[in-house]
Each structure stands twice: as structure tokens, then as C-alpha cells.
Amino acid sequence: MTTIKPATSERNTFVSQRANSIAPSGIRKFFDLLASIDDVISLGVGEPDYTTPWNIREAAIYSLERGRTMYTSNIGMPELRKELSLHLEQCYGLHYNPDSELLITVGVSEALDLAMRAIINQGDQVLMGAPCYVAYPASVLLSSGEPVMIPTNEANCFELDPMHLESAITPSCKAILSGYPANPTGAVLPRKKMLQIADAARRHNLIVMSDEIYSNLVYGVEHTCFASLPGMQERTILMGGFSKAYAMTGWRIGYAAGPREIISAMTKIHQYTIMCAPTMAQVAAIEALRNGNNSMKEMVADYNRRRQLIVSGLRNIGFSCFEPKGAFYAFPNISITGLSSEIFAEKLLQEERVAVVPGTAFGQCGEGYVRCCYATSVPELEEALVRIKRFVSNHR
Ligand code: PLP
After folding, report:
1. Is the pLDDT of residue 2 over 80?
2. Can you give the pLDDT at residue 156?
3. Which pTM does this prediction carry?
4. Does the CB atom of residue 98 touch ligand 1 within 6 A?
5. Domain that holds residue 262
6. Strands, E, within the chain: which ranges?
7. How far, in Å, is the centroid of ligand 1 from the Cα of 246?
């Protein structure tokens, strides 16, 4: 277990201690390098290669043609909140009041930031499994909290161990941040472990912030919604979005669902900082919920084929590679090359023009791994595997 302390580098007297407390994203740094090289196959950025399904784009275009260009209610359009409430009821049997327990946000990114700012006081600890999505520790630090990283590993399928979690709980702990299916590992936490974590959260009176942005992207396993576990709806902030499942990353739309007093606190911050999520994106989200299911399922089936291709390709090259059960990332163990994650990623980009993300961008326990996003076309994946194979044979 490690507690992340604010970064001390890059100090500047004009910049706030809060901004100085976070390091630049390890992903961004890498992509600046990528931009300077031609003919790169990118397995780097975590976003679908699909464009948003036509019916969703068309709904937004039509709304613009009709002049729907004003602000909406701060908490989001009533039609969208109603549709979302129905969706959560159908998927998980959870009832959320659309007027007081749902908030439409600028992606899960905003929901995460609001959740932290609404919950965390100075020095409060937030527990999370690592490696994890780059924004998790940063969002805690920006709220003057302390991220506490609980390492997971390949041998345990990158699943957060409830016993480890429990042993890391101190009187300063306020919340558990859970993110399954997981970025960067593709792990999905089995229901049994979630029940144990839920039990610990109840006994220690902790809030669970659950990032379920990849909930629809699961392969042969079931996603369990944290809030649907017995007694958890009242202490869970469920964060979900449209970016990944409906190929809508650029629309910037997501939501938070949770207890009335927490949503109301998050809404206050949202009112002053954001006002409302983009209007046309809200219209598009309504169409996605009403009529996006078939396209989403086709994309997921395609990701599954690509997942099988990349995992078997990486294993054939000689890497040990955990079989991801969700999201769209493979997280191979690159230790056979003897290179660090960062050097591997840099050399692979320079020598073979394949972009992957060093595992260390997701926490120190990502050392020895790289993240490969397989939401890219099959021919590109096949060519990337040929190049990686050549790279490895030159570095063994
Ligand atoms: N949560 C996770 C785990 C992610 O991987 C991402 C994006 O990569 C986000 C949240 C951000 O999602 P959004 O586009 O809804 O802000």
C-alpha cells in the first residue's frame, strides 16, 4: 500500500500549491512524443475507433437545426434524466429520482471531480486499487485528499483484494474509489469480492465512488453495479458515461447517480463551474439510451474479436498477458525484454512506430507492463503485432 503525496517538482510561485501537487499525465507526455513521428499505429489513446452511430449524430444535428442551442437545466434535461432513471432501473433494478438523485455531467471526468470535491475534506484518504486510471489519484489530490494505492497484480487477475483493502483502512479514510471494468488492466471485479468490499465500506462507514464507464464492455462475464449490492445504493456514487460504449468521447457527456444530499452538493459545484452539460450532447445521449443498444452491442462484439486477436498475438510473441474481461485494453507483462515500461514504450515508438502506454503512467505497480488499447482496426492490430514481434526479437 502506498500513499501518494503531492508532487514537489515543477514548482512555480505563481501556480497554486494545489496545481503543483499533481504531476502531468503520463499518457499526455507520451503523446507529445508520438505527434512528432509519422506512420504510427496507435494502441495508445483509450477511445473507440468508431464514429458515433448515425442515429445518435442525427438526433443532435436535428436538434441544432431546430435551434436547440441554449443552456439546459443545471442538472440536465428532464427527458434525459427520466430516460436515465428508466435505464438504471432496467439494468440494475435501482430506482433513482430523476429530479434529485441524478446529475448530468461533462463526462465521467466531471462526475469524478465533483464527487471528490463534494465529499473530501483536507487530508481525507481515498482508497483505490492500482494500477488505475490516471485521473483517480489526481482528482483526490486536487480536492486536498490523500490517495491510498492498494497494489493489485497479474497473479490475482488485477482484482482488488478485499483483505488488503481492509488492512489499509485508517480513521482518516473517507471513501473507496472503485473502477471496474478497469483501465488499464481490463480486470472485472467478481461479485463475491465486491460484496466483501461493500461489507467493509458499511462497517467502516465509507462512501464508495464507483466509476462504471466500461459497464457495457464486458466479455463473457457479468458486470455488477456497486450500488445494486445490498445496502449500497445509499452510500455509493455511481458514475457512468457514454464515451466508451456509444463511441461518444468527444461529446463530453456522462452522469452521476447517488444519494440526494450528495447529488445536491455536487450540483452546487457544477452550477458554478460548468452550468450544464452541452445541450446537443444531452440530446444525443437521449437517443443513445433509447435507440443505441444494437449499435453498442455490435461494437462490443467487435471489441471482443479484437481482444482475442491481441491477447493471443501478444502471448505468441512470448509475453505473459492477463486475459482482460472488460474495457478495451490488454496489459501485457513485458519483463522478458528486460526493459522498463517507459523505455519499452519509447523504443517501440521510435524503432517500430507502435504507440503503447507505459504501465507506470497508471502507478508505480504498473512497472513491467504496457497498456495496449485494442479499439483499433483488425489490420492495424495485425500489423502492430508484427512490429512488436520484430521489436522483441531485437531486444531479447
Ligand atoms: N474513467 C475511466 C476509467 C476512463 O478510462 C476514462 C477515459 O479514458 C474516463 C473515466 C473519462 O471518461 P469521460 O470521457 O466520460 O470523461
Report:
1. no
2. 96
3. 0.95
4. no
5. 54-291
6. 2-3, 41-42, 102-105, 125-130, 146-151, 173-178, 207-211, 236-241, 254-257, 320-321, 329-330, 332-333, 354-355, 357-358, 370-373
7. 13
